[in-house]
């Protein structure tokens, strides 16, 4: 009985017990998926945002991709916060005693980045509204759905 308990403790305190702390759990995969997806969509929104001045309908794609990037980033923050504060993840059994893990600076930096995306999304909505509702110099309303054909320039010589 004593020998079996000693052998079990050796496995828990040795390499097998240490490898238990470094597994790649499903919540790790979910966080990585949402972060990578949000980064890809943010890059896509930058690419479409550059084209919005020349072709105003891309402003819709810009806003939509930025919103989905913001949503994915918020989900990643929420999943990490909830999973990191679970008791089985927060307290780790070490060789000497029990250690409490705390949320580090990287989480707060990511939350600040998500907040910046939220501000960018609000700005994107306002600029998209500007691109849709444009008034020309004559006061007539020109928008995405009522394109006016360009007139040829006439010069009196």
TrEMBL record:
**Transmembrane portions of the chain:** 30-52, 59-83, 103-132
Q: Which UniProt keywords apply?
A: Membrane, Transmembrane, Transmembrane helix
Could you name the Gene Ontology cellular component terms for this entry?
A: membrane
Return the PANTHER family for the record.
CLC-LIKE PROTEIN, PUTATIVE-RELATED
Kindly provide the name given to this protein in its UniProt entry.
Clc-like protein
- What species is this protein from? Teladorsagia circumcincta (Brown stomach worm)
């Amino acid at each position: 009985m004593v020998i079996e308990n000693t052998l079990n403790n050796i496995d828990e305190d040795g390499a097998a017990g240490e490898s238990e702390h470094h597994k790649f759990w499903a919540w790790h995969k979910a966080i990585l998926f949402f972060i990578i997806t949000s980064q890809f969509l943010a890059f896509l929104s930058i690419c479409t945002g550059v084209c919005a001045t020349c072709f105003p309908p891309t402003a819709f794609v810009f806003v939509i991709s930025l919103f989905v990037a913001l949503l994915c980033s918020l989900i990643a923050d929420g999943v990490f916060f909830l999973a990191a504060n679970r008791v089985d993840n927060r307290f780790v059994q070490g060789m000497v005693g029990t250690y409490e893990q705390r949320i580090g600076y990287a989480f707060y930096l990511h939350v600040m980045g998500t907040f910046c995306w939220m501000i960018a999304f609000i700005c994107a909505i306002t600029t998209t509204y500007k691109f849709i509702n444009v008034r020309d110099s004559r006061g007539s309303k020109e928008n995405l759905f009522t394109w006016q054909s360009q007139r040829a320039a006439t010069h009196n010589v």
